[in-house]
Structures are given as structure tokens and as C-alpha cells.
Amino acid sequence: MPSRIPPARYGAVAQAFHWIIAALVVTQFVLANLEVDLPIGAHKLALLARHKSVGMTILMLAVLRLLWRLWNPPPALPVGMKPIERTLARASHYTFYVLLFAMPVTGWMMSSAKNYSVSWFGLFTWPNLIGENEAAFHLLHTTHETLSDVLFAVAVLHILAALKHHFWNKDNVLLRMLPFTKSERS
Amino acid sequence: MMKPSLSVLALAVSSVLLTGAAGVAGAAGGTAAYTADPQQSRLEFAGVQAGAEFKGVFKNFTAAIEFAPDALANARFDVQIDLKSEDTGDKDRDTTIRGADVFDVARWPTAHYVTRTFSKTAAGFTAVGALTLRGVTKDVPIDFRFAQTAAGAKLEGSAKLKRLDFGAGQGDWKSTDEVADAVKINFSLVLKPKT
């Protein structure tokens, strides 16, 4: 394990990973909700193609982010937090990391199961993870949707917690992830 | 009633003569007649959708092949493809492809390919033939290799065509933004002597 003293703030790279991935995840929810009820047609395919390209982008960023985090420990949680709050905070962060991999991978497997290879913005094509399999597709589809509900719920918890820390506890938890701010609060 | 023209008569006469002359080989002018073994033969197509290639096969087709490498003038391929037998491994996509906007199998259940001319190339042979799909007939060249085997022959090759040349893409699918115009065809036929 890295033996460095945890910094007071998230570094610029960690912040960039956080906010870029957050924006891409929001994009994914928007694209998925626009696409889900459309009949099969060019418009649905176009939205799905973007959804897949963005999803694979998130997967690649998640790999880099995890590697970055292993060598760059995050700032410690504020000292005043209760054990249950610490557990919740850690659990939600781990869940995010798991979902940042599980969401794209189940999506990628869904495409493979339907024999639709995933292109990355038309630049290159990812290999299929599994062979065509209708039963597997339905199972993966359900899993992908359920995980997206979990992701949504954890994101709501995450945002509420950040706001609670900022406005209720008046600590630096939100500020230390915000670019162009200082963590010290007067 | 149409009167039979001179050329139709000539064709009839010549085909009778040719059939007679074919004798043991059962085909015209030094060629041998084969049919594709449906169990071992494969007719595949590959399209590009949203930037990624997808492949499908035609499960039912017949190919009558009259060919010999040294009798190209009399060679002839006649291929009938059952369009509703296409399979891309996804029900939604297959329904769309068989539907009115693409193949429209209810109106045009089969595609038909008949060669006209053959020539030798460095790698094998090229044939130019007419493909009829969705009521549209257009020339499509095919490149292939031919090898005699103990049980008959093997014919492997490929072709490229543009789906919109045949109107295979109406409505949403007229656009090439999501589904490319270019389609590749690959075939590997195991030929057995025609009986």
C-alpha cells in the first residue's frame, strides 16, 4: 500500500476523472431514456450507438481511474464522522467503482449476445465477449437495468451526502472535489 | 400471344444441341455440372451497422454450377436464394431485414443470380452475373477460386454490392448513417456432381 500521507484535497487528475465520468454517466442515463421506448429504426440505432461508445469510454476511464487511485490515495474522511457514516461513505464509493465496470461490461455482453458488435464512435470495433444467445441477452438486459437503478440510487445518496457535508456539517468534503476552489473553510 | 422470335428459336435449338452434346458430363461444352451440398455450403453476408460489422447467413439456397477451368465460355452459375432464410443471430434485426423496408420477402421471396461471362484472374476467376433482388436486376461481379476434389469440387469466393442499388433499404434504412450501403458476400460451396 502507498505510504504517503493522504492529501487534504483530491488532485486535479482525480477531480478530472470524477467530473468527466459523472458527466458521461448522466449522458448515459439521458441516451438510455431517449432510446428505450423508441421503435426499431435508424433513430434508436443512432442513440444506442452513442450509448455504447460513451459506455466503452467510461469503461476505459474507469480502468485508468482505478489505476490512478491505487497510486494516489484519496484524502481522508473528516475526523468527526460517525462509524456508520464512514461505512456508508466507503460502501457507496466502492459500489460506484464496481458499477463503473459492471455497467459497461454487462452492456457490452448484451450487444455480443445479440450479435451486434460494439463500435467505438465508428473508429474501431470491440471484440464480442460472448456468442449470440437470446436467453443470456434477456438476463443481461435485466441485470443492466437493475444495476442502473442501483447506480441512480447510490448517486442520489452521494449527492445528498455531499450537500449535507457542505451545508450541514460545514466541512470540506464537497470543496475538496471541486476544481477552482480551496478546501479551507473559514 | 407473342410470336416466338428468331432468337428464342435459335436459343431453343442450340440448347437442345448443347444438351445432347454434353453427354456424360451432363453440362455444356466441356464443363461439369454440380449442385451445392446444402449441408456443407455456406452463403454469408456482412453489413456495417453503427460502425460495426455484422454477419448473417442464408440458410436456404440452391446453386447449380456448370464449370471447368478450361471451358469458361460455357460456364454458368445459377443461384436461388430464399431470402426469408437469412439469419443474423438477432430476431429484431432479422424481422427488420425480412420486412417491407429491406428484403420485403412477402413480395419478393427469392433473390436470383445468373452469371453471364467468366474470366481468369491471377488469384482465380471472376464472373459477371445479374443479381435480381426486390425486383431490381443489376450486374454484380464475383471473384472465386475453384478446386476439384475427390467428391466433386469446392468453390470459394466473395462479392461486393451496394444494397441501395436494389432498393434494399426504404424509409429509415435509405440513410447510410446507421447502416452502410456496402455489403460483402462470402461463399464457400461444396459441390457434388449433378445427378
Task: Write up what this structure looks like.
The complex is a heterodimer of chains A (186) and B (195). Chain A has a single domain (12-177), classed as Fumarate Reductase Cytochrome B subunit. Helix content of chain A is 65%, strand content 2%. Chain A has 4 helices and 2 strands. Chain A has helices at 12-35, 42-71, 83-113, 134-169, and strands at residues 119-120, 124-125. In chain A, a hairpin with a 3-residue loop joins strand 1 (119-120) and strand 2. The radius of gyration of chain A is 19 Å and the shape is elongated. The mean pLDDT of chain A is 92. Chain B is mainly beta. Chain B has 2 domains: 1-29; 31-193, Lipid/polyisoprenoid-binding, YceI-like (Lipocalin, Beta Barrel), CATH 2.40.128.110. An 8-stranded antiparallel barrel of chain B has the order 1-4-5-7-8-9-10-11. In chain B, strand 7 (110-120) and strand 8 (125-133) form a beta hairpin.
In a nutshell, what does this entry contain?
Chain A is mostly helical and 186 residues long. Chain A has helices at 12-35, 42-71, 83-113, 134-169; strands spanning 119-120, 124-125. In chain A, helix 2 crosses helix 3 (83-113) and helix 3 (83-113) packs antiparallel against helix 4 (134-169).
Q: What keywords describe this structure?
A:
heterodimer; A: 186 residues; Fumarate Reductase Cytochrome B subunit; elongated; B: Lipocalin; 2 domains; eight-stranded antiparallel β-barrel; 2 helices; 13% helix
